[in-house]
C-alpha cells in the first residue's frame, strides 16, 4: 500500500482520535463531530479537547470540514495513514479463505468461468463493485492443443494451458477435414509449440508461411489455418465488473448526477482498462483514493487493486471500486488474498497454504 501524501506524523492521542473519526465515518457516512466522539466510552477527553485535536488533524491534511458547522471527514491522506499505520486487520478469516477456495475449485479448469467467479466473489464479499482484468489469451502458455470435429466445416479448438486451465473456440476449416487429420494437426501443434505463448506460436506459424510457402504440405496448411483462427489477432484484455447496482444503494450515490457519472465510468471499457493499467504497477495491493487519480476523484471513490500472475509475468488485475468510505480492513485483505489465489491457480495450479 502507498501513502500518496506526506503529512506530519500524529501523536499517539491524535492517532487514536483520527482512527475513531475514520471508523465512525465509514460506519455512518456522516461528518463526525467532537461531541459524538466525546460520548464514546474509550474517549476520556472533553468535546473541546477533541475538537482541538480534530482541528490539528485538519491542519495536517488528514481531515476536512465539508461545512463550517459540520463535523470532519477523512481526506485521502487520512485514509492512507489509517490503512498503512492504524488498520488492524490484514488477513481474511479462515472461513472466508475456505469459502473463496471452495468456489474457485468449482471453476478451476475454465478461464472464463474462473474470471467470472472472481468478479462475483469480489462483489459478494465487499458489497462494492468487483473489477477483473482477465488475462489476454495471447499471453497464455500452451500445454496442449486439441481439435475436435463439429458439424459442417467447423472444429472445436481446446487450448490447455500449463496451469491446467482450458479455453474453447469454434473455428471454420478451409475444407472438410477428417477426425484423423485433426488429431494429426493437434499432435503437430502440441509437439512443436508446447511451452510457448499463443502469441509466440502465432508468430512462428506466420514466419513458417513466409519462409517456406512452396514447401508447406496439406497438413501444415490446415494446421496454420486452424491455428490462426484459434489464436486470433492481437487481443485486448477483457474487463469484467459486477456490483454497480449494489453501490447505487449507498448514500454517496443519492443524486442522479453521480449515478450518471458512475455509469459513464464503465461505459468506455477501453479507457477504463487504460487507466487501470496506469494505476496498477509493481507487486502488492495498491489503494487509490479520491484525488489520487482521475478515475477516483470525480466520484470521490477508491480503488483497491492488485495484479496476478507469476513473479516475472503479469497476467491481469483485480480489484474493488466503490465510495472512499469503504471498509478497508475487509477490502484490502480480500483483494490481496484473491490476487494470490488467482496467481496460484493460473500459474502454479496449486493452492496456497492457510
Overview of the structural elements:
The structure is a single chain. The protein is an alpha+beta fold and 354 residues long. It folds into three domains: 12-86, Winged helix-like DNA-binding domain superfamily/Winged helix DNA-binding domain (Arc Repressor Mutant, subunit A), CATH 1.10.10; 94-135 and 237-348, GAF domain (Beta-Lactamase); 138-231, Enolase-like, domain 1 (2-Layer Sandwich), CATH 3.30.390.10. It has 14 helices and ten strands. It has helices at residues 12-28, 34-38, 47-59, 76-86, 94-105, 111-126, 179-193, 198-211, 218-231, 244-247, 256-265, 269-279, 294-297, 328-348, and strands at residues 63-64, 73-74, 129-133, 142-149, 154-161, 166-172, 239-242, 285-289, 301-310, 313-323. Strands 7-3-10-9-8 form a five-stranded antiparallel sheet, with helices on both faces. The chain has a three-stranded antiparallel sheet with strand order 4-5-6. Strand 4 (142-149) and strand 5 (154-161) form a beta hairpin. Helix 6 (111-126) packs antiparallel against helix 14, helix 7 packs across helix 9 and helix 8 packs antiparallel against helix 9 (218-231). It starts with 11 loop residues before the first helix and ends in a 6-residue tail after the last helix. Mean pLDDT is 83; it is low at 1-5 and 350-354.
Describe this protein with a few key phrases.
alpha+beta, disordered C terminus, 47% helix, 3-stranded antiparallel sheet, 14 helices, elongated, 5-stranded antiparallel sheet, Arc Repressor Mutant, subunit A, 354 residues, 10 strands, 3 domains
Amino acid at each position: 500500500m502507498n501513502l500518496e501524501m506526506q503529512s506530519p506524523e500524529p501523536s499517539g492521542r491524535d492517532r487514536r482520535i483520527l482512527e475513531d473519526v475514520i471508523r465512525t465515518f465509514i460506519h455512518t457516512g456522516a461528518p463526525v463531530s467532537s461531541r459524538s466522539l466525546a460520548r464514546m466510552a474509550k474517549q476520556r477527553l472533553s468535546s473541546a479537547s477533541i475538537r482541538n485535536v480534530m482541528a490539528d488533524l485538519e491542519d495536517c491534511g488528514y481531515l476536512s470540514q465539508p461545512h463550517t458547522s459540520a463535523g470532519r471527514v477523512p481526506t485521502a491522506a487520512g485514509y492512507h495513514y489509517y490503512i498503512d499505520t492504524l488498520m488492524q486487520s490484514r488477513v481474511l478469516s479462515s472461513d472466508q479463505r475456505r469459502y473463496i477456495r471452495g468456489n474457485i475449485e468449482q471453476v478451476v479448469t475454465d478461464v472464463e468461468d474462473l474470471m467470472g467467479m472472481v468478479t462475483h466473489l469480489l462483489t459478494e464479499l465487499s458489497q462494492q463493485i468487483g473489477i477483473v482484468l482477465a488475462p489476454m489469451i495471447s499471453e497464455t502458455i500452451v500445454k496442449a492443443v486439441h481439435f475436435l470435429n463439429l458439424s459442417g466445416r467447423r472444429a472445436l479448438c481446446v487450448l490447455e494451458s500449463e496451469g491446467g486451465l482450458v479455453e474453447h473456440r469454434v473455428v471454420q476449416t478451409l475444407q472438410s477435414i477428417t477426425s484423423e487429420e485433426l488429431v494429426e494437426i493437434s499432435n503437430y501443434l502440441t509437439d512443436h509449440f508446447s511451452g510457448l505463448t499463443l502469441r509466440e506460436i502465432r508468430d512462428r506459424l506466420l514466419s513458417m508461411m513466409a519462409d517456406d510457402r512452396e514447401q508447406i504440405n496439406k497438413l501444415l496448411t490446415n494446421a496454420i489455418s486452424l491455428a490462426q483462427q484459434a489464436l486470433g489477432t492481437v487481443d485486448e484484455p477483457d474487463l469484467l465488473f459486477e456490483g454497480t447496482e449494489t453501490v447505487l444503494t449507498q448514500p454517496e450515490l443519492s443524486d442522479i448526477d453521480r449515478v450518471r457519472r458512475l455509469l459513464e465510468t464503465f461505459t468506455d471499457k477501453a479507457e477504463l482498462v487504460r487507466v487501470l493499467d496506469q494505476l496498477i504497477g509493481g507487486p502488492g495491493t495498491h489503494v487509490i483514493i479520491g484525488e489520487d487519480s482521475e478515475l477516483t476523484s470525480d466520484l470521490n471513490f477508491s480503488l483497491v487493486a492488485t495484479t496476478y500472475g507469476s513473479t516475472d509475468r503479469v497476467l491481469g488485475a483485480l480489484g474493488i471500486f466503490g465510495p472512499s468510505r469503504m471498509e478497508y480492513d475487509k477490502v484490502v485483505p480480500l483483494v490481496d488474498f484473491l490476487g494470490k489465489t488467482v496467481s496460484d491457480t493460473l500459474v502454479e495450479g496449486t493452492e496456497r497454504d492457510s
